[in-house]
Amino acid sequence: MGFLWTMVELVIALILIAVFVLVSTIFFEAYRRRNNHTHVEATAVFEDPNSLKQVPCPHISDPAEKYISLIIPAYNEEHRLPGALEETVNYLQQRAAKDKSFSYEVVIIDDGSADGTKRVAFDFVRKYTVDKVRVILLGRNHGKGEAIRKGMLHSRGELLLMLDADGATKVNDLEKLENQIHAFARKEGNYGDSASRNSSFRISDIPIAAFGSRAHLEEKALAARKWYRNFLMKGFHLVVLLTAGPGIRDTQCGFKMFTRSAARKLFKNIRLKRWCFDVELVFLCKWFNIPMIEISVNWSEIPGSKVNPLSIPNMLWELALMSVGYRTRMWTIRT
Question: How many Å apart are CA 260 and CA 264, to the nearest integer?
Answer without folding.
Answer: 6
